Amino acid sequence: QYNGPAPIVAVVGSGPAGFYTAQKLMRDIPGTKVDMYEQLPVPFGLVRFGVAPDHPEVKNCQDTFQEVAASPDYTFIGNVNLGHDLPLPLLAKHYDAIVFAYGASKDRRLGLEGEEKPHIYSARAFVGWYNGLPEYRDLDPDLTAGETAIVVGQGNVALDVTRTLLSKVDVLRKTDITDYALHALSGSKIKHVHVVGRRGPMQAAFTIKEVRELLQLEDVNFTPIPNELFPADLAKLPRPRRRLLELLKKGSPVKEKATKSWSLDFLLAPTFLNWSAADPDRLEGVTFSKTRLEDPSSSESPVVNTDETQVIATSILFRSIGYKAEAILGMAEIGAEFDQGKGTIRHDGLGRVVPVSQSATVGNGDGNGKVAVYCSGWVKRGPTGVIASTMTDAFQTAEAIVEDWKRAYASNSGPESLRGGWTGVQAEAQALKLPLRPLHWDKWQKIDEAEKAEGAKRGKPREKFGKVSEMLEAAGV
Length: 477
Ligand code: FAD
Description:
It is an enzyme of class 1 (oxidoreductase). This is NADPH:adrenodoxin oxidoreductase, mitochondrial. It is found in: Mitochondrion. NADP(+) binds at residues 154-157, 198-199, 210, 385. By secondary structure, the chain is an alpha/beta fold. Helices cover 31% and strands 19% of the residues. It contains 15 helices and 19 strands. The chain has helices at 16-28, 46-49, 61-69, 88-93, 123-130, 156-166, 169-172, 179-186, 208-215, 239-250, 378-381, 387-409, 421-431, 441-457, 468-475, and strands spanning 8-12, 33-37, 74-77, 97-100, 106-107, 120-122, 148-152, 192-196, 220-222, 260-265, 268-275, 283-293, 303-313, 316-319, 323-324, 338-339, 344-345, 352-354, 372-375. Flavin-adenine dinucleotide is lined by residues 12-18, 37-40, 45-47, 50-51, 55, 58, 81-83, 101-103, 105, 127, 157, 160, 323, 328, 377-378, 385-387, 390.
């Protein structure tokens, strides 16, 4: 039985990692106070801005997050970008622990010349655009330049992009996809999407559910995959891979009325973007190196480029080769180190960046900026994995915090932490005249209601505000 004090914790980021860490902390040490800082006026991270609009069931985790937010020990502090609006060392003084759960806010690039030119989009930007992420409100992708699109990358995000490009607009209309995206998609001329990967079917990163959804799309055909790309004996494979390969091999029956199609193009690595001689800003195609697998039967096989090339004509390209996290300004000052190579915060494997034993002393309120630091979610283990794996990961971090805390303070029967949390931060920010415009949960609820009301008028679950100014206006902030 633990009778010591409860900590006051700042969580940076309000995606699944932030919420699941908060949930477990508050459950395991009753009385724990969690202040959750979020750069946007709205919570939920990629659940709102990543998950595809036609996957509403995936967003059910928001019910759990709402329960966490309903606790009197929880405070949502939206519209505050840590590191920019509020220096980290200032934050650190007022908490016993900080948990970095700020996800991955950049994307990996192909490294090709001309990648920044028009008609080349990152999946992160495109997905953010159709899901109402303010950063990409004005992306305005040109879907009218030609009939073929290339998506480079073969993970689930690549398939989300492909499905959105090929779905009937009337199906998407009933989802929470933004109105401006619907408008652009309804004028799209794209008829075929090549989903291109460096490796083979054995190594593909997408999962069976997403493939099945694409195969079942109305009036959309699938180009059969050449037989020689499959291992001779599927029966020997582990069940999940076997089922996926069986499905890919079977494909889908030819749909007579199909007007659109997609293909999975394996063993191709992009090496060159081909621009029109007449207009150097017009993409005409992509040159790929054909690749070779060193061990075709292994799902982990290394891949090498060969001298053979293949050109695929296209006027638009989406790169979907992964998200990337970056450091927050001022991290080093509180003892956290960002590993640029891995794109994650350095930690002990369980989420400890600077454990409590090396840092704070409960209740000292010493204001010396020492704080225990942890990380959780995509910024901890890299930008892979679904919400369920992010939950497992967040629970692991919370367990590390609880263990450190209890070990350090088990014999301390009081006083409660003297650190001021948000109240202390606010007072200091005011004294320093930092122009914060924070927004709490009740204000988010106003935004939520306004979005739902607007959605109801259009027969969809919500119409998201695409601009921060619109969100703040709806919140009355
Ligand atoms: P995030 O969800 O990215 O949350 C991080 C939060 O931190 C964001 O709200 C961000 O605004 C905030 N933040 C960033 N920087 C700062 C800062 N400086 N100050 C304050 N706040 C900050 N999983 C599924 O299970 N099913 C799916 O269908 C599915 N679809 C996906 C589709 C896409 C396109 C993507 C990219 C992912 C998808 N996932 C899906 C995976 C799932 O979204 C992730 O596993 C999960 O969101 C990671 O959680 P996180 O909290 O680490 O990061």
